[in-house]
Fold this protein.
Amino acid sequence: MHYEGMIIRPPSEADSILLQVTLGCSHNKCTFCGTFRGKRFNIKKDDVIFKDIEFARIHCQRQDRLFICDGDAMIIPQKRLVNILQRVKERLPWVQRVGLYANTKSIAMKTDDQLKELHDLGVKIAYMGLESGDDHILKQIKKGADSSKMIKMGKRVKQAGIQLSITVLNGLGGRKNSVRHAMETGRVLSAIDPDFVGALTLMLVPGTELYDQHEKGDFELMNPEEMLEELGLMIGSTHLSNGLFHANHASNYLPIRAKLPEEKEKTLEKISQALKGKTALKPEYMRAL
């Protein structure tokens, strides 16, 4: 496979065929993220993409899921994206699910019919980074969208029949805005009602704006117990009709996998027990992005 630079994918795509179609992220301005800082966003040429699909046809017959990399594949113009998905369907007929990252800008560029077309061609799940539901924090981190746009675009993905997995970032408001971050994030998650929520815990990355803000004393990072209290408040404020709330990423201090609403109270009790010292938290040296 033809890979350029670092490849990232959601934890749930660990066993998927990774087809790199774009390089970098179409937004690439978030203050906490250093993943694609060295990559200029562009879309690979079709001949390179199709060669990788042929490689997968020969070598990846045991994998029935495919994830389109890099940071925001939905930004690809519809005609080209349809062409790629049709090639996947033709050459990799055993693939049952295609996943990709999306953001509010790329979703807004698709009509409802185009989103439905992507679903019909195999896109069964999209991953969208909400990070926070608080408009003040979203503006501070240069996310490029406010909470109302997040809600609108998230709902459009679901209405097209595509499962939606939303990422939020525990600790992103710092100590000062922790409660507001948790409550507002719960509000937005409840309004979108995604199929999956993935909560990561903030880790400051050298070279990012947020890291520099922390070094200057303008952003106060919370300790593990405060992070966990915030996560509990966030889960308590999140009302899903039938979703999974995950906080089992390598960055998290306490692994959580809860079906909401059924397991909410049990999960909050698990957090409470950890805060009382009855459950050990992951040591700092074991955390990773």
Q: What stands out?
A: The chain is about 35% helix and 15% strand. The longest helix spans residues 178-192. Residues 67 and 99 are 5 Å apart (CA to CA).
